[in-house]
Write a structure and sequence with these properties.
seven-stranded mixed β-sheet; alpha/beta; Aspartate Aminotransferase, domain 1; binds pyridoxal-5'-phosphate; 36% helix; three-stranded antiparallel β-sheet; Aspartate Aminotransferase, domain 2; globular; 16% strand; single chain
Length: 355
């Protein structure tokens, strides 16, 4: 029996994507060789990379200034690549969660960083808002969805300063203006595909102004010039991401999936708010559609029972992040409504039988 996988990342992918990826590993397009054996310089793989770039552009409705890259090193490498490629005198960062603070730590190794807003004092339970972006900043770095704490930006800042966004855990989950960003990046393993590839969208017109002589791999312009094939790309991760983008296209793209994601999140948050045994963690207006974090009010009394009931219902991966505790249900694009309903039913059952 396939489990309902609420893990934060690597995370659930559509059943059909897993099937197609598995088949391609066994025998790619009936060619008698595996996907992971084909040359990245072959016509077959170039077609995969071209479609993966074009389909991502189409789904995000990107203009001609923006280009899609598939890189390695995870979102974590982008914490360094962004300042290497954009930072001249100073950059502004919003500290909205643990990944935002990791991005700050890395950028501080490269240049001057100003933390212009933070919700750290309140354990990152809300998204900092109403901050002023210094007019002399080279860019503003924000995190659209805070995977660990379950908060998500609903309204993006309005500023003339180029915006860089870590979108690892909510990219392509909703219909936003993706052209608003100078750079956005996402490790694939949350909402795009398997670990091993990172999607980066860059506004080409903003590059090449720092005067730094960068190591080639760290230079976006090197990757742009080689269509993400400056070195051997992670062929399996790119192909599986493409399969997932095709799936997303069939769901109606960001518009179509946003409706479903809202429906799932509403179902779960309504139960957290209604059920006297549970409580939410974050400020309501900033609640994430992707990572739903909640606590049991009486862990001593209910934790062992609830955990067992989840297990019996084929639910896995609902444990909270190690520093937060409680529960975190990650309900990315590929989690069906049915999975969320199963979790809600278990919460109702706990109330009925153990209140
Ligand atoms: C998971 C995550 C990261 C780290 O991604 P890696 O690919 O493991 O480097 C960074 N930012 C956010 C928002 C994340 O959710």
């Amino acid at each position: 029996m396939k489990k309902y996988n609420f893990s934060a990342g690597p995370s659930t992918l559509p059943e059909e994507v897993i099937q197609q990826a598995s088949q391609a590993v066994l025998d790619f397009n009936n060619k008698g060789i595996s996907l992971i054996e084909i040359s990245h310089r072959s016509k077959d793989f170039i077609a995969i990379m071209d479609e993966a770039r074009a389909l991502a552009k189409k789904l995000m409705k990107l203009d001609d200034n923006h280009e899609v890259l598939y890189l390695q090193g995870g979102a974590s490498l982008q914490f360094s690549m962004v300042p290497y490629n954009l930072l001249k005198s100073k950059a502004a960062y919003v500290d909205s969660g643990n990944f935002a603070s990791m991005a700050i730590k890395e950028a501080e190794k490269i240049g001057k960083i100003e933390i212009i807003a933070s919700s750290k004092q309140d354990k990152y339970t809300y998204i900092p808002k109403d901050y002023a972006v210094p007019s002399d900043a080279d860019y503003l770095h924000i995190t659209s969805n805070n995977t660990v704490y379950g908060t998500e930006i609903k309204t993006f800042p309005n500023t003339n300063i180029p915006i860089v966004c870590d979108m690892s855990s909510d990219i392509l989950s909703r219909n936003i203006n993706y052209n608003k960003f100078a750079i956005l990046y996402a490790g694939a393993q949350k909402n795009l595909g398997p670990a091993g590839v990172t999607m980066v969208v860059v506004d080409k017109t903003l590059l090449g102004t720092t005067g730094r002589n960068l190591p080639s791999y760290l230079d976006y312009e090197v990757h742009l010039a080689k269509d993400s094939m400056a070195n051997t790309p992670p062929v399996f991760a790119v192909y599986t991401t493409l399969l997932n983008l095709r799936w997303l296209d069939k769901q109606g793209g960001p518009e179509g999936i946003e409706k479903k994601n809202k429906e799932k999140a509403e179902l779960l948050y309504n139960e957290i708010d209604r059920n006297p045994l549970f409580r939410g963690i974050c400020v309501k207006e900033d609640r994430s559609l992707m990572n739903v974090c909640f606590f049991l009010n009486d862990e001593e009394k209910h934790k062992a029972i609830f955990d067992q009931m989840c297990k019996d219902a084929n639910i896995v991966g609902v444990g909270g992040y190690r520093t937060v505790g409680g529960y975190r249900a990650s309900i990315y694009n590929a989690m069906p409504l049915e999975g969320v309903q199963v979790l809600v039913n278990v919460m109702k059952e706990l109330e009925k039988t153990h209140n």
